[in-house]
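To the wet lab folks,

You asked to see what we're planning to order before we commit. Fair enough. Below is the target structure as C-alpha coordinates, and below that is the sequence we designed to fit it. If anything looks off to you, flag it before the synthesis order goes out.
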Protein backbone atom coordinates (compact mmCIF):
# COMPACT_ATOMS: atom_id res chain seq x y z
CA UNK A 1 0.00 0.00 0.00
CA UNK A 2 1.46 3.40 -0.95
CA UNK A 3 2.18 5.72 1.97
CA UNK A 4 -0.34 8.43 2.76
CA UNK A 5 0.37 11.72 1.01
CA UNK A 6 1.63 14.39 3.37
CA UNK A 7 1.89 18.12 3.18
CA UNK A 8 4.85 19.16 1.02
CA UNK A 9 8.01 20.10 2.87
CA UNK A 10 9.27 23.63 2.42
CA UNK A 11 12.38 23.83 0.25
CA UNK A 12 15.35 25.60 1.82
CA UNK A 13 18.17 26.83 -0.47
CA UNK A 14 21.01 25.96 1.93
CA UNK A 15 20.03 22.29 2.36
CA UNK A 16 22.57 19.74 1.19
CA UNK A 17 21.69 17.17 -1.47
CA UNK A 18 20.79 14.44 1.04
CA UNK A 19 18.32 16.77 2.77
CA UNK A 20 16.80 17.87 -0.55
CA UNK A 21 16.30 14.25 -1.57
CA UNK A 22 14.82 13.48 1.85
CA UNK A 23 12.45 16.43 1.37
CA UNK A 24 11.28 15.04 -1.95
CA UNK A 25 10.67 11.63 -0.40
CA UNK A 26 8.63 13.30 2.32
CA UNK A 27 6.65 15.09 -0.38
CA UNK A 28 5.96 11.63 -1.82
CA UNK A 29 4.49 10.58 1.52
CA UNK A 30 7.38 9.05 3.46
CA UNK A 31 8.36 10.12 6.98
CA UNK A 32 11.89 10.63 8.26
CA UNK A 33 11.51 7.35 10.11
CA UNK A 34 10.56 5.64 6.84
CA UNK A 35 13.64 7.12 5.15
CA UNK A 36 15.80 5.88 8.03
CA UNK A 37 14.41 2.37 7.55
CA UNK A 38 15.12 2.57 3.83
CA UNK A 39 18.80 3.45 4.36
CA UNK A 40 19.05 1.18 7.44
CA UNK A 41 20.11 3.92 9.82
CA UNK A 42 18.76 5.61 12.95
CA UNK A 43 16.11 8.32 12.35
CA UNK A 44 18.37 10.81 14.12
CA UNK A 45 20.80 10.61 11.19
CA UNK A 46 18.09 11.73 8.78
CA UNK A 47 17.45 14.75 11.00
CA UNK A 48 21.17 15.50 10.84
CA UNK A 49 20.88 15.83 7.06
CA UNK A 50 19.21 19.15 7.93
CA UNK A 51 20.98 20.22 11.10
CA UNK A 52 24.55 19.04 10.52
CA UNK A 53 24.62 18.64 6.73
CA UNK A 54 25.35 14.91 6.96
CA UNK A 55 24.29 12.23 4.49
CA UNK A 56 26.72 12.61 1.58
CA UNK A 57 27.33 8.86 1.47
CA UNK A 58 23.60 8.22 1.05
CA UNK A 59 22.99 10.57 -1.90
CA UNK A 60 23.36 7.89 -4.63
CA UNK A 61 21.05 5.53 -2.72
CA UNK A 62 18.47 8.28 -2.08
CA UNK A 63 18.50 9.25 -5.75
CA UNK A 64 17.83 5.66 -6.79
CA UNK A 65 15.06 5.33 -4.20
CA UNK A 66 13.43 8.60 -5.29
CA UNK A 67 13.55 7.51 -8.92
CA UNK A 68 12.03 4.14 -8.00
CA UNK A 69 9.19 5.89 -6.16
CA UNK A 70 8.44 8.64 -8.68
CA UNK A 71 9.15 6.76 -11.92
CA UNK A 72 9.04 3.08 -11.15
CA UNK A 73 6.02 3.19 -8.85
CA UNK A 74 7.77 1.18 -6.12
CA UNK A 75 6.37 2.01 -2.67
CA UNK A 76 7.22 -1.01 -0.50
CA UNK A 77 9.78 0.01 2.14
CA UNK A 78 11.65 -3.35 2.30
CA UNK A 79 11.98 -3.31 -1.50
CA UNK A 80 13.26 0.28 -1.43
CA UNK A 81 15.68 -0.67 1.36
CA UNK A 82 17.09 -3.49 -0.76
CA UNK A 83 17.56 -1.01 -3.62
CA UNK A 84 19.24 1.54 -1.34
CA UNK A 85 21.63 -1.08 0.05
CA UNK A 86 23.04 -1.66 -3.44
CA UNK A 87 23.87 2.04 -3.84
CA UNK A 88 25.14 2.94 -0.36
CA UNK A 89 28.86 3.63 -0.18
CA UNK A 90 31.01 4.47 2.82
CA UNK A 91 32.40 7.95 3.36
CA UNK A 92 35.98 8.50 2.18
CA UNK A 93 38.46 9.92 4.70
CA UNK A 94 40.98 12.69 3.98
CA UNK A 95 43.58 9.96 3.40
CA UNK A 96 41.45 8.40 0.68
CA UNK A 97 40.42 5.31 2.64
CA UNK A 98 36.92 4.16 3.50
CA UNK A 99 35.69 5.51 6.82
CA UNK A 100 34.99 3.01 9.55
CA UNK A 101 31.35 2.38 10.33
CA UNK A 102 30.48 3.62 13.80
CA UNK A 103 28.63 1.06 15.86
CA UNK A 104 27.25 1.08 19.37
CA UNK A 105 28.94 -1.06 21.96
CA UNK A 106 26.93 -3.94 23.36
CA UNK A 107 24.97 -2.46 26.23
CA UNK A 108 23.57 -4.79 28.87
CA UNK A 109 22.71 -3.23 32.21
CA UNK A 110 23.74 -4.75 35.57
CA UNK A 111 20.26 -6.26 35.82
CA UNK A 112 20.82 -8.05 32.52
CA UNK A 113 18.48 -5.89 30.47
CA UNK A 114 19.55 -5.40 26.87
CA UNK A 115 17.81 -4.84 23.53
CA UNK A 116 18.87 -4.98 19.90
CA UNK A 117 16.80 -4.39 16.76
CA UNK A 118 17.48 -4.87 13.05
CA UNK A 119 15.48 -4.58 9.83
CA UNK A 120 15.73 -4.75 6.04
CA UNK A 121 19.40 -4.53 5.02
CA UNK A 122 20.76 -5.86 8.32
CA UNK A 123 18.40 -8.85 8.26
CA UNK A 124 19.40 -9.69 4.69
CA UNK A 125 23.04 -9.83 5.81
CA UNK A 126 22.30 -12.08 8.79
CA UNK A 127 21.57 -9.56 11.56
CA UNK A 128 25.22 -9.85 12.58
CA UNK A 129 25.05 -6.73 14.75
CA UNK A 130 22.88 -8.75 17.16
CA UNK A 131 25.48 -11.48 17.56
CA UNK A 132 27.60 -9.63 20.18
CA UNK A 133 24.46 -8.97 22.25
CA UNK A 134 23.57 -12.66 22.22
CA UNK A 135 27.15 -13.71 22.95
CA UNK A 136 27.41 -11.34 25.91
CA UNK A 137 24.05 -12.53 27.23
CA UNK A 138 25.29 -16.12 26.98
CA UNK A 139 28.48 -15.22 28.85
CA UNK A 140 26.43 -13.70 31.69
CA UNK A 141 23.96 -16.59 31.86
CA UNK A 142 20.97 -14.44 30.88
CA UNK A 143 17.58 -15.23 29.46
CA UNK A 144 16.59 -14.16 25.98
CA UNK A 145 13.40 -13.42 24.06
CA UNK A 146 12.73 -12.09 20.59
CA UNK A 147 10.10 -10.48 18.39
CA UNK A 148 9.81 -11.20 14.68
CA UNK A 149 7.85 -9.46 11.97
CA UNK A 150 6.90 -11.09 8.69
CA UNK A 151 3.99 -11.32 6.27
CA UNK A 152 1.01 -12.76 8.10
CA UNK A 153 0.69 -15.57 5.52
CA UNK A 154 4.14 -16.78 6.60
CA UNK A 155 2.86 -17.92 10.01
CA UNK A 156 1.52 -21.46 10.40
CA UNK A 157 -0.40 -20.98 13.65
CA UNK A 158 -3.37 -18.54 13.67
CA UNK A 159 -2.84 -15.12 15.19
CA UNK A 160 -3.22 -14.99 18.97
CA UNK A 161 -3.07 -18.76 19.47
CA UNK A 162 -1.60 -19.82 22.80
CA UNK A 163 0.01 -22.73 20.95
CA UNK A 164 2.22 -20.25 19.16
CA UNK A 165 3.16 -17.80 21.91
CA UNK A 166 1.74 -19.01 25.24
CA UNK A 167 0.66 -16.36 27.70
CA UNK A 168 1.58 -13.31 25.63
CA UNK A 169 -1.31 -13.04 23.18
CA UNK A 170 -1.33 -9.28 23.67
CA UNK A 171 2.09 -9.14 21.97
CA UNK A 172 0.70 -9.94 18.51
CA UNK A 173 0.71 -6.74 16.45
CA UNK A 174 -0.86 -6.59 12.98
CA UNK A 175 0.37 -3.97 10.50
CA UNK A 176 -1.41 -2.27 7.60
CA UNK A 177 1.17 -3.67 5.15
CA UNK A 178 -0.10 -7.21 5.90
CA UNK A 179 2.85 -8.04 8.15
CA UNK A 180 2.48 -9.18 11.74
CA UNK A 181 4.75 -9.00 14.77
CA UNK A 182 4.83 -11.85 17.25
CA UNK A 183 6.87 -12.13 20.44
CA UNK A 184 8.40 -15.31 21.81
CA UNK A 185 9.43 -15.42 25.45
CA UNK A 186 9.20 -12.81 28.20
CA UNK A 187 10.36 -12.24 31.77
CA UNK A 188 6.85 -13.10 33.00
CA UNK A 189 6.31 -16.31 31.03
CA UNK A 190 9.90 -17.47 30.63
CA UNK A 191 12.37 -17.12 27.80
CA UNK A 192 15.24 -19.00 26.24
CA UNK A 193 18.69 -19.66 27.65
CA UNK A 194 20.96 -17.20 25.85
CA UNK A 195 23.75 -19.80 25.87
CA UNK A 196 21.60 -22.28 23.95
CA UNK A 197 20.61 -19.63 21.46
CA UNK A 198 24.22 -18.49 21.07
CA UNK A 199 25.09 -22.07 20.10
CA UNK A 200 22.39 -21.97 17.45
CA UNK A 201 23.87 -18.76 16.06
CA UNK A 202 27.38 -20.22 16.05
CA UNK A 203 26.11 -23.33 14.27
CA UNK A 204 24.99 -21.24 11.29
CA UNK A 205 28.17 -19.18 11.09
CA UNK A 206 26.94 -16.21 13.12
CA UNK A 207 23.78 -15.62 11.03
CA UNK A 208 21.24 -14.53 13.67
CA UNK A 209 18.45 -14.26 11.09
CA UNK A 210 18.98 -17.86 10.01
CA UNK A 211 19.13 -19.09 13.61
CA UNK A 212 15.81 -17.44 14.48
CA UNK A 213 14.17 -18.59 11.25
CA UNK A 214 15.42 -22.14 11.79
CA UNK A 215 13.93 -22.22 15.31
CA UNK A 216 10.59 -20.90 14.04
CA UNK A 217 10.49 -23.52 11.28
CA UNK A 218 11.58 -26.38 13.56
CA UNK A 219 8.87 -25.53 16.08
CA UNK A 220 6.19 -25.33 13.38
CA UNK A 221 5.52 -21.62 13.73
CA UNK A 222 6.35 -20.34 10.24
CA UNK A 223 6.54 -21.74 6.71
CA UNK A 224 9.97 -22.56 5.29
CA UNK A 225 9.75 -19.78 2.68
CA UNK A 226 8.68 -17.04 5.14
CA UNK A 227 10.85 -13.91 5.10
CA UNK A 228 11.63 -12.04 8.33
CA UNK A 229 11.52 -8.24 7.86
CA UNK A 230 12.13 -7.11 11.46
CA UNK A 231 13.87 -8.75 14.38
CA UNK A 232 14.29 -7.65 17.99
CA UNK A 233 16.21 -9.48 20.72
CA UNK A 234 15.75 -8.77 24.45
CA UNK A 235 17.70 -10.08 27.44
CA UNK A 236 17.24 -10.13 31.21
CA UNK A 237 18.65 -11.85 34.27
CA UNK A 238 16.57 -14.81 35.47
CA UNK A 239 15.22 -14.63 39.01
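Sequence we intend to order:
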Amino acid sequence: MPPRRRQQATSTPDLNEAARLADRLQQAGYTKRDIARIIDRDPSLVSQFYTKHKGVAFVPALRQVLDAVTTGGITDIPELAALAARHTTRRITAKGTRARVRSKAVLITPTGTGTGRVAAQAIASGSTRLRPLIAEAARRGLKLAFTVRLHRSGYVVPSGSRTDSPGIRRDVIQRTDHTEERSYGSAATGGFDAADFAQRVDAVGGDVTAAVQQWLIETGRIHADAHIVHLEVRTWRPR
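Structural context that might help your review: The longest strand covers residues 143-151. Residues 59-70 form the longest helix (12 residues).

Thanks,
Computational group
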